[in-house]
Specification:
The complex is a heterodimer.
Chain A: H1 5-16, H2 31-81, H3 89-95, E1 101-106, H4 121-127, E2 132-135, E3 145-150, E4 156-161, H5 173-212, H6 227-272, H7 279-306, E5 312-315, H8 316-329, E6 334-337, E7 343-346, H9 348-365, E8 370-377, E9 380-386, H10 394-401, H11 419-429, E10 433-438, E11 444-451
Parallel strand pairs in A: 6-8
Antiparallel strand pairs in A: 1-4, 2-3, 3-4, 5-7, 8-9, 9-11, 10-11
Chain B: H1 3-10, E1 15-19, H2 23-35, E2 39-43, H3 46-53, E3 62-66, H4 74-83, E4 90-94, H5 99-108, E5 112-115, H6 120-134, E6 147-150, E7 153-156, E8 161-163, E9 169-170, H7 174-185, E10 190-191, H8 193-201, H9 210-224, E11 234-237, E12 241-244, E13 248-250
Parallel strand pairs in B: 1-2, 1-3, 3-4, 4-5
Antiparallel strand pairs in B: 6-7, 6-13, 7-8, 8-9, 10-12, 11-12
Classes of the chains: A alpha+beta, B alpha/beta.
Amino acid sequence: MSPPPADAALRAATYRAPRRRPGLRLWPRSLAGRITLLLLGGLTLLHLGSMVVHERALHGAESGARVERLADRVSAAAAAVAPLPEASRDPAAHALSAPGIDIHWDRVPPLPATPPPPALAAAAERLGAAARLGWDPKAEPGHRVVGAVPVESGGWVVFSAAWLGPSGGALAPGSGLASMVAMALGIALASVLVVRWITRPLRRLADAADGIGRDLRARPLPEDGPEEVRHAAAAFNAMQGRIRRLVEDRTEALAAMSHDLRTPLSRLKLRVGFLPEGEDRERIEADVAEMEAMVGRTLDYIREGRDAEPARPADLAAILQTLASDAMDAGHDVAYEGPARVVGPLRRLAAKRALSNLVENAILHGAPPIRLRAREEGERVVVEVSDAGAGIAPADRARALAPFAQLDPSRGRGGLGLGLAIAARFAEASGGELVLEDAAGGGLCARITLPWPRRQASQG
Amino acid sequence: MTEAAERRLLDPEAHVLVVEDDGEMRLLVARLLHEAGFRVSVARDGREMWEAMESPAGAPDLVLLDVMLPGASGLDLLRRLRERGNRVPVLMLTARGEEMDRVLGLELGADDYVPKPFAPRELVARVRALLRRAAPAEAVPDPRSRRISFAGWTLDTARRELTAPDGASVDLSGAEYDLLLAFLEHPGRVMSREQLLEVARRRVGVDPFDRTVDVQVSRLRRKIEPEEGSPSLIKTVRGAGYVFVAEVARA
């Protein structure tokens, strides 16, 4: 039934391929797993080894004791039987039998005078030079060792016994298993402790490193546990502090610069007002307004990171209506569509800043009509700012949300590329998120989702 | 109407004192106000301000005060001014858009607040509005009592924040806030469109039409009478204008 040689070679080749797995699956990937396996393996080996040694010693001792008992009994039988008349020697000898050894008396020995087999050498030595000892494999079990000892008054005391060597299972099988189970439980307990001491602080470290990207002001790691872990936690805390100070310094610099720009901007704005009306003046005013917006947005962005405004119940619909009204008064097609009241916990000024940035973004980079929507969905509220412009291609969306990123490579269209970043930061800081999607009308839909726990309307 | 107020109302050349440490800014603001028809004095710090206040030329009708001044800060000067019992209208200027500054200033006794950079037209409009307010009608609302309540609503004039009866904070645009304040300062009085127009004009940059007032009133209504069953706070009076019917109380 063997396949043709060509096939076999093919099969052998294909069969071998799956074997080349990277690494053995038996070796666990986690530290906890590895430690547990090592402990289990090592301690199991140790336990087995000690059991073997223990058993050997035990058997050795026991079989030595058995041999002694046998020899004593046989010698005692020989001595007891010697003064008796021949007829009563056998029954007397037999009466001295015991479990495991059968004693008789006979005129002739059952064995020739050959040297005893090496396994029974110890017994033979005990019984004396004249004793005869041998195996009888044909006898029933329990009587395979056969021997004879001469009686002074003639004849032989003949005995048969079970094998006089070490037997397996000196300890009851049950007790071996129980000890193994007890040991496994002990190892499991030890592993649990080891895992807690070592891997938990390590996991905490990894989580903290992960979290630092999201919130630089996260609490420092507790510095406890084994010394190496403590050292790592301390180093990590120091690093977090350094990064935080670095970011704060940069943020401070940015804030100071933006802030200081306001003074010359004020002067410019005033002076421009004195220029004669005309295109030049309009253009300058527009540029000043643009600079003002950039400064304002930068400061908005920075404030979102450090704002201490508490969340209080606020009407989201009112904010959207205000933004729509202001935009409409400036001549844009912006309208709010949604319920007259949408009340929930909100950082009102931060929300207004963020949404205002989204609206400005839609005005600057999108196209009318621009619609603002809000609706409550269970424990969340959804706010959408959508326009009918060109939208943002899905591939560019992640980049669009990054601060100071502008999708237009010439960076000339106005703004700093912060509008979406401000809104995204606000959403995240409030426990929600901002996503960019295609609007129904073909433009961009910026959707902010926020947690919106309901409360009784009559609470004040 | 007090004699001083009457005088202010009739005298087209109200006297404005500009306290600003930045030289160029000081000149520009002075020029702006002068071209708008005011008589202008300038001061670069607290000392010069006190001098101007006591000058024989006449105390100013309004003080334009920059919050960030060398030496005694603008807020300190304001506090000392009020402590002396001087009620001159004060308009604060500041480069910091922080809300705390504004609230603090208004609590210390300033009457209004303009963040820099400001549009020149806006500054002039605010100065005019403040001067007009200081020329009082019968009941001068104490500028220091910052909370006004009506029909369960509360308006905090320092924070410019409106709170609904259920505790929710309701955002208002600049025009809506000014309009609401105008109503609250004249409760129970029928206000014509022109009267309300003047209020709205301060904010809306474009030339206002009659329609603008109607639009602003309907926007305001959408916020303070949002639902079907909401009590009616502003009533239309055919041919005459609007009237604010709720009871108004100052905290």
